[in-house]
């Protein structure tokens, strides 16, 4: 589980194509400190498993489904990426509950700079729009953000100088893809409301 508070702006060192998957080598001295085989690190909001680490770099395998559902397939050597380690048990939840399971990709439509912040409009797939509400939480490229305004197939976010300076969102331009993870609580609520009583029936079957 992650919080959407990016710890480090890392870099893709190399991408090895493996047919139905890819192996990424990424540089991130902070997030690799103490990391070992099998640990998780979120890369642009995608939870990846560490294969090995060496000299501030780590490798991770990315399966075809992840490449299809996220924007990781568009990365190449030199690409900057947002990196975050899982939240430690008992740690502070600075953003919101983030699983690292990308629901789909959106596209930056426009950026409107302000005096101390920047408003960014992002188009998203219609099936995801129902989970996005004004002042709700959403993860964009691994960054926990608050929705300013939600439309039928778009939403806006406000980026403060720190986010612009320390994440990839500071350099993304109109037309660029971004990974989106909607609030998992909204999906659970929808599931429960869509099938009323399912949980109770399941519980009765187990007891029986």
Question: Could you state the order of secondary-structure elements as H and E?
Answer: EEHEEEHEEEHEEEHEHH
Query: Mind telling me the C-alpha Rg?
Result: 18 Å
CATH structural fold name of the largest domain: Elongation Factor Tu (Ef-tu), domain 3
Instruction: Tell me about the largest β-sheet.
Output: 6 strands, antiparallel, barrel
Strands in their spatial order, largest beta sheet? 1-2-5-4-3-6
Can you tell me the overall shape?
A: globular
* Domains, number: 2
Q: What's the helical proportion of residues?
A: 10-25%
- Please tell me the overall pLDDT: 89
**Spans with pLDDT under 50 lasting ≥5 residues?**
196-208
- The assigned structural class equals alpha+beta
CATH architecture grouping of the largest domain: Beta Barrel
Task: Describe the protein's architecture and organization.
With 208 residues, the protein is of the alpha+beta class. The chain is built from six helices and twelve strands. It has two domains: 8-84, Elongation Factor Tu (Ef-tu), domain 3; 104-192, Beta Barrel (Elongation Factor Tu (Ef-tu), domain 3). Strands 1-2-5-4-3-6 form a six-stranded antiparallel beta barrel. The two termini are 34 Å apart.
